[in-house]
Amino acid sequence: MNIAIVCYPTFGGSGVLATELGIALADMGHQVHFVTYKQPVKLALLSHHVYFHEVAVPDYPLFRYQPYELALSSTLVNVVKDHNIEILHVHYAIPHAYAGFMAQQMLLEEGIKIPMVTTLHGTDITLVGNHPFYKPAVTFSINKSDAVTSVSESLKQDTLTHFPIKRPIEVIPNFIDLSKMDQQDGPCERGAMAEPHERIITHVSNLRPVKRLLDVVEIFDRVVAQCPARLVIVGDGPDKAPAKALIEQKGLKSKVQFMGNSDEVHKILCLTDLFLLPSQIESFGLAALEAMACRVPVISTNVGGLSEVNVHGYSGYLSDVGDVESMAENALSILMDDATLDRFKDQARAQAQNFSIDLVVPQYEALYKKTIAETELAV
């Protein structure tokens, strides 16, 4: 198949998932064309099966905000015609499904009917999409898609609850390439991050308020009072400064290291004993899954799709949002005993295997074929 994938080319979960999906499809022999405003961060190497098409947005003084949706629609039209694209797969309802629909309509004028699959990732539904200003556009975009998927059952139910959706939504979860997580340049050198007697605790996110980075600091403060440990924070965002201030206030500066954005998170997770994800909202929790794939148990909140990923008492523990006391107690119950920590590490890895790329990507491939066939029958 010739497939066009539209996504955000960033470190966020949707961009990572879309890029990894495209690479996996290319490895299966499909032609994959990424269409976005810059090369995705995870798309390090292009091949004869993987292509990148930049969406260039002209900078006209007339526009206060540059019309990215129009530029994306026009680019999609050209890519479909120039490369015989058979299906569009857009990640995020707005602006991508909205732009995809406009591209479909322009192509219909030339006698080309191209089906579109829309994958919902979370903030397009729970935050941006649920705003009254955007809600009609999100509803329209979903209902006009030829097939719709969500990354968790929780997100599917949220979508059906908050939007008048007229079409079925298929749950295809996020996935992990376990083989990549197993690849290391050498043994995990824990001594570079901590003393031999210290545990290493990690948090990875875009450091937005919804990730509750200050709760990460509060949990760590309670843990380190009873268990020697170091905290590693990966990512960048608006809560970095207030978190640093809280760390300074609590006298934890020597125990915390900020790593910034990284495309080698698995190398950091290799050193990690426990992963903290106290988010206010998580449609799936890809960061938690990546940690579990690296044999790292997870302490998380019980929101969104996290309970579908992190099994309470098995791969880690779940707590209510903001309950830092419970999360710290659960963390200590894992960290204080070597045998318990080893057991949770093995169980975290076993749980991650349920989301193997080998199990999930064929579900997308089957959906593409089904959607293309249905479109051809409707012509």
Textual characterization of the structure:
With 379 residues, this protein is an alpha/beta fold. It has two domains: 2-175 and 357-378, Rossmann fold (3-Layer(aba) Sandwich); 178-355, 3-Layer(aba) Sandwich (Rossmann fold). The chain has helices spanning 13-27, 68-83, 93-108, 123-126, 135-144, 153-162, 178-182, 213-224, 240-249, 265-269, 286-293, 306-309, 324-335, 338-352, 357-378; strands at 2-6, 31-36, 50-54, 87-91, 116-120, 147-150, 170-171, 199-204, 229-234, 256-260, 274-277, 298-301, 316-319. The strands form two sheets. The chain has a seven-stranded parallel beta sheet with strand order 3-2-1-4-5-6-7, sandwiched between helices. Strand 4 (87-91), helix 3 (93-108) and strand 5 (116-120) form a beta-alpha-beta unit. Helix 3 packs across helix 5 (135-144), helix 8 (213-224) crosses helix 13 (324-335) and helix 11 crosses helix 14 (338-352). The radius of gyration is 22 Å and the shape is elongated. The two termini are 19 Å apart. The model has no long low-confidence stretch (mean pLDDT 90).
Could you give a quick summary of the protein structure above?
The chain is of the alpha/beta class and 379 residues long.
Strand content: 15-25%
Please write the CATH class name of the largest domain.
Alpha Beta
Summarize the biggest pleated sheet: 7 strands, parallel
Strand elements, count? 13
- Average the pLDDT over all residues and give the rounded result: 90
Pairing-aware structural class of the strands and helices? alpha/beta
* CATH superfamily heading of the largest domain: Glycogen Phosphorylase B
Gyration radius, in Å: 22 Å
> H/E series, N to C?
EHEEHEHEHHEHEHEHEHEHEHEHEHHH
CATH topology descriptor of the largest domain: Rossmann fold
> Going across the major beta sheet, what is the strand order?
3-2-1-4-5-6-7
Silhouette: elongated
For the record, the count of structural domains works out to: 2
* Overall CATH architecture of the largest domain: 3-Layer(aba) Sandwich
